[in-house]
Amino acid sequence: MKRFIISFVALTISFNLSAQTSISLDQVAEEVKQSNFTVLENAQRVYQAKETVNLNKRNLLPRLNLWNILKTPFSWKGALDVVQDIAPFLVPSNWFKVGQSREFYYAYQEQYRALWANQVMTAKLLYINTLRDIDFLNALKEQSLKLDELVGISETRQVFGSVEPRTTRFLKIKKLEIQEDIRALENLVFEEKKALAYLLGVDQEQDLSLERISLPEVEKLEPLQFDTFVFRALDSAPELTQYKYLKEALKYTSREVTFSFLGASSNSQGMFNNIPVQDGLGFGAASSIRISNSESHILDINKESTEEVLKKSLYNLVNNFNSYLNNIENQTSRRRLAGENYQTLRSHLALGMDIDPLEMLKSVENEFDASISLVNYKYEVVTTMERLKRMIFNGDYNKKESKLDSLLTGGLQ
């Protein structure tokens, strides 16, 4: 029986140990690449886009339709019907469809790259923000201990009549409020860890442990310039690169309209299904070409709009980063002065001097506010730098997507 109990305890300890997963910020990008559900779904879409290319190529192989072979071609149109069924590779429209599918495949790759980068950034920012909230929680617990000490002093003085009961009651109410804040913040951290686990593809049964990061010495950082990053941000943006491939895909549709008298392709036109393609000697080709040109202008407008959105985001990032740098000295001084004021009052209190507990409470609150404000500034600098890396595709965002590579093994065959 004793051996059974020992084995059971060992098994329980083993289970508890295995139920905790430790992860660092450096591991987040790789975990998202391999396990994130949204990215995996989009990688499958990219894979499907590649398979569409292969399907269209297979449709170009000669195939035999006996019913159409036996059909007497009384007109050139009937003859071309036979040609299209026997040897569809002779019809230009199907060649255009293969090229269009290839361009859509490349556009899907860029869209995947943008989605993957956004998911990596989301996971890393959630990781960083969770660490920030853990620091806030620890600071709140320190404030609770200081308030416990203050309540004890107030109760002692109340016995000797130097403090009114209402002051003690007020301090106890503040203590209960802080305990409620601690409970709420603990729940928030719990929810953030579970959200991060979901984003990383970690089982919800696992207890996620986050390794600490080194916060920067903000006062030693240099201000940023917009011109330093704008070219790389626009050049690296998959949100812009995708339009190049969509424009190329649209060209295939335009050529298909031009050569529609040889027979229209039966394959899907992807996002350009709204462009009517005439079959045979239709007289609407000119209108179809004008619609195709209009689609081209729409793509140009969308690209220009996307470029302006990217530049606006970059301007905001640079401005926010520089504002943090400009104000960090004020935050540091505020933290130092609040700490000195609290220590001075505490020393006077320890020496038996008559210090109003409410004044002491105010100093505790000021020190707490200044402390979390300074910590928050440093975390904001970290998150701003992370967003900037995402915009210029630097660091983790410049890595090759192994999940996509494994799905596309063999390339375009």
What's the layout of helices and strands?
Layout (H helix, E strand, L loop, with lengths): L1 H17 L1 E4 L1 H11 L1 H23 L6 H4 L6 H11 L5 H68 L5 H36 L6 E4 L15 H11 L1 H21 L26 H66 L6 H36 L9 H6 L6
Parallel strand pairs: 1-2
Helix pairs in contact: 2-6, 3-6, 6-7, 6-9, 6-11, 8-10, 9-10, 10-11
Provide a compact summary of the structure:
The chain has 413 residues and is an all-alpha fold. It has one domain (25-59, 91-402): Outer membrane efflux proteins (OEP), CATH 1.20.1600.10.
CATH class: Mainly Alpha
CATH homologous superfamily heading: Outer membrane efflux proteins (OEP)
What structural class do you assign from the helix and strand content?
Answer: mainly alpha
Strands in their spatial order, largest beta sheet: 1-2
Distance between the termini: 65 Å
- Please state the overall shape, judged from the principal axes of the Cα atoms: elongated
Gyration radius, rounded: 33 Å
Tell me the strand percentage band: under 5%
Estimate the helix proportion, in percent: over 70%
Low-confidence stretches: 11-18, 56-98, 256-285
Number of helices: 12
CATH topology: Outer membrane efflux proteins (OEP)
Number of strands: 2
